[in-house]
Design a protein that fits this description.
34% helix, Rossmann fold, two-stranded antiparallel ribbon
């Protein structure tokens, strides 16, 4: 069985991506990050998903991006609420204007995450790295675009011992990159993903002894629109 490293945030997209990798016959090694993010509750979701979907191993790497800051997810900057619900890439992959990138962008986050994934993949001798980035229904982050993924893949095959020696050729697999949120949800339902296990909210609200999604941040609104367009009810709610 071929091995694959799958980045698993605990959200809807990454859960679907992990399920796709399993369906394609990979032995999956799930990788999550505790980077002192505001919505650290997503890690509990990642643990549930990795167990439910049968990851061979689930590794959570801890480091502190709060010391770097520069994002509403890793500093005291407020998370934007009730922004326009029209996603940035609805024309199927166009890059957003720089002014469209919200303060929830975390500096170099996917580059850092993929670098850890690449290191683990090299050790596991796993050619395939799955990441659930999307360039259709997304907030406009530059490290979710196809050209970024292609550039990282090229770099990965220049920077690793096994690729330079010709033993492996790394591939960054992005099965969701050209799907709408509704299409992602329908694909996950086909594969049996239990979306009640996932977490999407950037700014969870703690009430009555539990965390609840704020329903106003970009991530909540994109999720809500996705379920609405798919004609389904969000089981998390």
């Amino acid at each position: 069985m071929k091995r694959a490293v799958v980045l698993l945030s605990g959200g809807l997209d990454s859960a679907t991506t992990l399920s796709i990798a399993k369906a394609e016959g990979f032995e999956v090694f799930a990788l999550s990050f505790d980077y002192e993010q505001r919505h650290k509750i997503e890690l509990e979701a990642a643990r549930r998903i990795a167990e439910e979907l049968g990851a061979r191993k689930h590794l959570i790497i801890k480091f502190n991006m709060r010391d770097i800051g520069g994002s509403a997810l890793t500093s005291s900057i407020e998370v934007p609420k009730d922004r326009a619900t029209e996603p940035q890439g609805r024309s199927r992959g166009t890059a957003p204007a720089p002014a469209a990138i919200p303060v929830t962008y975390v500096p170099a986050r996917n580059t850092i995450f993929l670098s850890f994934a690449l290191g683990w993949a090299e050790t596991l001798e796993a050619e395939d790295i799955f990441i659930g980035v999307n360039a259709i229904d997304y907030s406009g982050y530059p490290d979710c675009r196809p050209e970024y993924i292609k550039a990282f893949e090229d770099m990965a095959n220049l920077a690793t011992k096994v690729s330079v020696e010709g033993k492996l050729r790394f591939k960054i697999i992005t099965p969701l990159i050209k799907l709408t949120k509704a299409e992602i949800i329908k694909k996950g339902i086909e594969l049996g993903v239990d979306y009640s296990l996932t977490w999407s909210c950037y700014d969870p609200v703690y009430t009555d002894g539990k965390y609840r999604p704020c329903m106003k941040c970009d991530s909540c609104r994109l999720r809500a629109n996705g379920f609405k367009e798919a004609g389904m009810k969000d089981p998390l709610l």
